[in-house]
């Protein structure tokens, strides 16, 4: 079916430059799904709200401005919840009259997403196509859509690379992707669907809350289940893998250098109220105590919080001079922007454990500048592998594709690690695949990694400071 | 087919379960569906199937005395796109009222002096 283009137009009794000037100006909720952007410029990130109704209300559409012809045209390329262009044309039809035309591109995955979101049962792919199915559970909507933005792109790219290399056991690899809506119950339902659809592995680039629900739903199936992204760890059977950075390792790399650089040592811990933040704060108490830091206070907020004013006031009153944020996705974006607006930066430096490239750009240069984080991957890694990887990504998804982050790179690498394990095993021997997945050692864009058992991946972490347009890797700086 | 009908058809939990059964098995008879959906009898299933067929969500095939149901492959996608098109259009209508309100002096009610 490819993609279809929906068209809507309206004649407005106002001058064209006035209509154009309203875009992203935060003027009411009117201008194209309450479009919000800091600066109307090519490359700027934009968020829009699609009023889908239902229990979850409006869904954030995340994209960026990719072409501008003031005051005639604005082109937005959407990344979430589906990929496609949104073209807005403004035609002057009189001194006080403008015709606005919107053309929205929706591809097959977009239609599929919309149907699922509206409660439509997913169609099963034909049983006999002979494809080797790999399932990806990620967040195309909800607060996690921010950090998961490039995960599906990169999983598709890895699947294409496996196919260029002969597929798996002579079969063409096909990626089936599902959206957990950053909601554990939805994630469990979608994971069951991926299994019914015949996936041989489920890669989960989702929050720990969703991962726990997925593990309860399909964890006893014997099908490998991989939490690809950073997480707080936890137990589970041998075919349930938790890769990605651990908070204790991130803190070990970042906390002491930040205390040394700032001369500060009173920490305030702020996180989302679920297993990830609780686990990360538990690790933080141990690491910070060893580093002679003190805890000035701690707050957990519900995932999906938009107003952080009370929390920021509490931090300001606590006497803390350092903030550890374990907030994720849209919550972290809102928190950091409000910290800047409320002038908390004047008294506190911040270490954020889920400050990936996509979250950083949605926080914006002004509010992100000076924040520290530590991950196994940054786009700035100065290695030949990483340069070649980014070049392939932009060849496949264009110059305005959303930035790669440690979360999406790990999703890409998980597809390749699984492919390497599957090739070492007999086709339908889950035990052999699982065993291979516990001891692989390979080079991925982030560098050398070594899998050691179901719950550990050995990798090097890098300390970085957010700066205009990206991150500065501190170990490579003077 | 009306978009409204299609989404209304989905508002009911029993109808959603019926669709799930059809989606998982491909084509199936009313009897098979009734056996797989708990809580409701054969007659109720038949009347829900009629709603789903009128809404353009499922198609019916008759073979002798039996009727078989499958998801209409075109129906849901068309309904989803029409729904989205409606959202685009209403967003532009809001833009129109916002922009016209923003025009200096435009739609401001004139105040009498004094």
Q: Helices and strands in order, then pairings?
A:
The complex is a heterodimer of chains A (478) and B (114).
Chain A: E1 3-12, H1 16-21, E2 45-50, E3 59-69, E4 73-80, E5 84-94, E6 97-107, H2 108-117, E7 132-138, H3 151-164, E8 173-179, H4 184-196, E9 202-205, H5 208-218, E10 225-227, E11 240-242, H6 247-262, E12 266-272, H7 275-290, E13 294-301, H8 309-318, E14 322-325, H9 329-341, E15 349-352, H10 357-363, H11 365-368, E16 372-375, H12 384-397, H13 406-424, H14 430-437, E17 441-444, E18 447-451, E19 457-458, E20 462-467, E21 470-473
Parallel strand pairs in A: 7-8, 7-9, 9-10, 10-11, 12-13, 12-14, 14-15
Antiparallel strand pairs in A: 1-6, 2-3, 3-4, 4-5, 5-6, 16-20, 17-18, 18-19, 20-21
Helix pairs in contact in A: 3-13, 4-5, 6-7, 9-10, 13-14
Chain B: H1 3-9, H2 13-25, E1 28-29, H3 30-36, H4 42-54, E2 58-63, E3 66-71, H5 75-102
Antiparallel strand pairs in B: 1-3, 2-3
Helix pairs in contact in B: 1-5, 3-4
